[in-house]
Design brief:
With 228 residues, the chain is an all-alpha fold. The protein is 76% helix and 0% strand. The protein is rod-shaped, with a radius of gyration of 42 Å.
């Protein structure tokens, strides 16, 4: 009788154990989904897209594994629970990394905007000094048109920055900066050629060594006649 009671208790304990192992770790699922949503809000898709993509793929795999276990008689969610812990940590890291990267991009945009605006102002001065011959005048008109387009792009980049779209602002200001720098180089080269700074200096003839004075022969003393 005693053995039957013990066996019954063991069976109940086993059922309880299997029941506990057979439950979907819903709290962890919810926490992980919330962390992924937080990473998306932190613009992880913009600043750390690879990290967010890895987290989303991991969660898809977890959801698929949960459905497989649900269809089994003896369910086992232990490994899934461990995977949820890892995915939750990765989602939190993606959100934190996105915030750091966003701040870095913001500062880069600020620096780039200041730099390209300085180049634009310098280009305006260089245009006044550039050669204005028949061909030069036509080229300058093209440059002025291009400068207008560049200034419009910089204004758009500034607007994106003001809205907090730092990555889009960075891409736009980089393109504008490249074009402005190209014009700057072109203008400086044209001005240098006009002033002869673009030509190599003519080599000076080597100085001839000074002629050494020819030494005069020393006159020998004339011998005096001997008196007798």
């Amino acid at each position: 009788m005693k053995n039957k009671v013990l066996m019954g208790l063991a069976a109940i304990a086993m059922v309880a154990f299997l029941s506990s192992c057979g439950k979907v770790p819903q709290a962890k699922v919810d926490a992980t989904n919330a962390a992924i949503a937080a990473a998306q809000t932190a613009e992880a898709a913009v600043y750390v897209p690879a990290e967010l993509s890895a987290v989303q793929d991991s969660m898809k795999s977890i959801n698929a594994a949960i459905e497989v276990q649900k269809s089994k008689l003896f369910k086992k969610f232990g490994p899934i629970s461990v995977k949820l812990d890892e995915t939750l940590a990765a989602a939190n890291k993606a959100a934190a990394d996105a915030a750091v990267k966003k701040e870095e991009v913001k500062k880069e945009v600020e620096t780039s905007l200041a730099a390209v605006k300085a180049v634009i102002e310098e280009n305006k001065i260089l245009i006044t000094k550039a050669p204005k011959g028949k061909e030069g005048a036509a080229v300058l008109e093209q440059i002025k048109t291009e400068m207008t387009t560049i200034e419009a792009s910089v204004a758009e980049a500034q607007g994106l920055y003001d809205k907090g779209s730092f990555m889009d602002a960075l891409n736009k200001v980089k393109a504008a900066s490249e074009r402005a720098t190209g014009i700057n180089t072109e203008l400086k080269d044209a001005i240098a050629k006009v002033h002869g700074k673009g030509k190599p200096a003519a080599a000076k003839p080597a100085a001839k060594p000074a002629a050494k004075p020819v030494a005069k022969p020393v006159a020998k003393p004339v011998a005096k006649p001997v008196k007798k």
